[in-house]
Amino acid sequence: MYGYSIFGLRIAATQPLPGLTAAGDSGAWDVVVRLGALPAGLEQAAPVADPLYVSPDRDEAGRPLVVVRPIARADGFRLQYADGTEFVVDRPGTQVWVRWPEPWTVDDVATYLLGPVLAFVLRRRGVTCLHASAVGLGERAVALVGPPGAGKSTLAAGFARRGHPALSDDVVALSCSDGRFSVQPGPPRIRLWPESVRALYGTPDALPRLTPTWDKRFLELGDPAGRDRPQPLPLAAIYLLTARDPGPTLPCVEPVSSVESLMALVANTSANYLLDDTMRGEEFACLSEVVSSVPVRRLVRDDNPALVPTLCDMIVRDVQGCDLEGTRV
Asked: What average pLDDT values come out for the chain (329 residues) when binned by 10 residues?
């Protein structure tokens, strides 16, 4: 087994996982990932007619990008992607199986596993996850929240270029202790589309591809040997990324009411389409605690990637110069 530590979980895998730093054998794994095969007897199980979730997005052949079905006998869930990659996650979120077709490789599979699949695992384990990126500013963390394409990863990469540790990209797992929320470090990579790489580095091929079959690139973070692995950091503030038409007052940081903050966070949690009623109630309670203890601000800007340095400066000044603990509307 190959051992890793991400999102606050101790994970064992039957093959090496790309982009992760080995954490050694803990002897007590939270999640075991079995690559190359699905559970024995799965194909013989009685089929479940109604899927739990069907993605509204389609591939070029018109197939849903992902379909999630509960497994007969209520043992778990089967996630079937349009490209033929399949995952099975057991109900408590302790076991994951994955099978993929040729010509895909473990590198391709990892783009699913280390993102939406582990987000689903975390949700099964009762961990609230924001659809966000998170960076460290000193001894605190800030979360950058927004829908796909909002610029979360690009802004996180801008902070990383300035020497601020990027804690997580796309999935931000929150932990709570004594009423204080912290961000758990995720995989040490930021995934970027070529246009973002061009904006940050001057050319779209300045960073390596995630896989040979996908044009998305990645920024490697930290020391490959794991000597400077990020630690969980207390969450100091949350910034909602909002785009507007260019104007003389942009970019700017605006306060957000508690009610609007809560609704925005509920709309931007990871794998929220797979929650049952009990899990949704738990999520709502958790996020209510978040907005009552962590300031939420709106970062308003246009889509000009040249603004990334300016936006980084604005957030740093906002965190350092404001009494965020008392900021409420």
From this structure: 93 93 79 93 67 92 94 83 95 95 92 95 95 94 91 94 92 92 94 92 92 89 61 95 73 92 95 90 95 94 84 92 46
237 and 171 belong to one structural domain: yes
Structural domains in the chain (count): 2
**End of a domain among 124, 143, 160?**
124
Total-model pTM:
0.89
| Length of the chain measured in residues | 329
Q: Strand locations in the chain, DSSP E?
A: 2-6, 9-13, 31-35, 53-54, 66-70, 76-81, 86-90, 95-99, 129-137, 140-145, 166-168, 171-177, 180-184, 189-192, 209-211, 214-220, 233-243, 252-255, 296-301
What is the structure's pLDDT at 326?
41
Say what angle helices 277-293 and 258-267 make with each other, to 10 degrees: 140
> Same structural domain for residues 137 and 120?
no
Domain that holds residue 90: 2-124
In whole angstroms, what separates CA 255 from the centre of its chain? 24
Taking phi over 0 as left and psi of -120 to 50 as alpha, with beta for the rest, 292 belongs to alpha
Q: Are 123 and 77 in contact (CB under 8 A)?
A: no
Same domain, 288 and 177: yes
Predicted pLDDT of residue 191:
94
Residue 167 DSSP class: E
Which whole-number Å values give the CA distances from 273 to 22, 116, 268, in the listed order? 32, 11, 11
SS3 137: strand
How many whole angstroms separate alpha carbon 198 and alpha carbon 218? 13
**Same domain assignment for residues 65 and 135:** no
Question: What CATH number does residue 305 fall under?
Answer: 3.40.50
Alpha helices (runs of H) in the chain, residue ranges in sequence order: 106-112, 118-124, 152-161, 194-201, 258-267, 277-293, 308-321
Query: What CA–CA distance (Å, rounded) separates 109 from 86?
Result: 9
